[in-house]
Amino acid sequence: MCGGKVEDNGLPISHKRNSIADVVELEDILSEPPQETIEAMGSLDGDLVILGVGGKMGPTLARMAKRASDLAGVSRHVIGVSRFSTPKLQERLHSWGVETHSCDLLDSKSYSQLPNAANIVYMAGMKFGSTGQQSLTWAMNTFLPGLVSARYHDSRIAVFSTGNVYGLSPVRLGGSLEKDPLHPVGDYAMSCLGRERIFEHFSRTEKIKMSILRVYYSVELRYGVLMDLAQLVLSGKPVPLTMGHFCCIWQADAIAMSLRSLNHTATPPLTLNIAGPELFSVRRVAEEFGERMVKPVRFEGVESEDALICNSQKAMELFGYPRTSVGQMMTWITDWAVRGGESLAKPTHFENRAGNF
Questions:
Q1: What does the domain layout of the chain look like in residue ranges?
Q2: Dihedral sign (CA 172, 175, 179, 182)
């Protein structure tokens, strides 16, 4: 288990391992706060509320925030808000020292009961299942931001968004920049741009300090574009090449940056691409998984000249480079996939170019 110790080269001891034993160890590693995040949480005043804590990244973010606050010597309530359709997540959060509050965020009458906090992380939203439920997608992604802004107009807010708001970017240009024009495709991406615009409106009019985080393919061992590719190779299924390039980031690094963004909130909002610094070829990554697994790799389609990719240099300048390399991720994922480790069974659909989720 990792306990925050760091080797001389700056990497946690956990990153020296070629295998992660189980979900307990994985969640411990994913929630280990870097020193910079400990310092950032130590410099913030007030409690932290995480809206939409029940998603893929929410529990890890809540636990890292609590661990970082404790290590910084700060007495802080970290409170996760969700509908909590099953009690298991609440029990797990409570075991980590994270408090919970059950709430349907679409119910405007429930907002008066939400706990006060100086710091808000907004993770609520809808992606998968949006096709066929467009009205619910727009309600989740554009109606809630107005309610949240009204309730927490005196707080600083870190808003999770997505790179889908850019649309596809020419590979030769190296990925979308925060200043680039936005060309969202499909109801999901358009509604996510709506989410950003609603938050931006209230940031400007109510002077609410915010950060908007356009996250690209957060990866862990149970979910993510790298696991999708590993499972395709392991199963012998063809790897689609039409979306021929991608960028990604280890979930712990994305969460650490997201928490640190609370120290950089601004009005109008600070917008950041959250991803690793590299651009990867689907073909080459799949071939490397094939070599690691000693499996033949089949492909279908041809690489397009554009892809859903970004340039994350702005975040790198602000927070430094991620601690976890793609090579390390692939080592862990190969071992996990071959051993049949637990999966969330939620493919990213990284190959989707039409914006239908």
A1: 21-338
A2: positive
Which CATH number among 3.40.50.1580, 3.40.50.720, 2.170.190.11, 3.50.20.20 corresponds to the domain 21-338?
3.40.50.720
| Terminal-residue alpha carbon distance, the chain | 36
> Which has the closest alpha carbon to 280: 322, 309, 315?
309
Report the C-alpha gap between 241 and 303 in whole angstroms. 5
Q: How far apart are CA 122 and CA 141, in angstroms?
A: 11
Closest CA to 30 of 230, 329, 245: 329
Of 123, 142, 242, 245, whose CA–CA distance to 189 is shortest?
142
d(CA 35, CA 26): 19
CA distances 325 to 190, 195, 216, Å, are 31, 31, 15
**Cα 187 from Cα 193, distance rounded (Å):** 10
CB 151 within 8 A of CB 179: no
Largest Cα separation within the chain, whole Å, is 58
pTM above 0.85, yes or no: yes
User: Could you give the 3-state DSSP secondary structure of residue 103?
Assistant: coil
Q: Which of 55, 110, 124, 54 is nearest to 87 (CA)?
A: 54
pLDDT (0 to 100) of residue 12: 60
Helix ranges (DSSP H) in 265-311: 282-293
What does the block give as tokens for 256?
């650490």
Average pLDDT over residues 315-336: 96
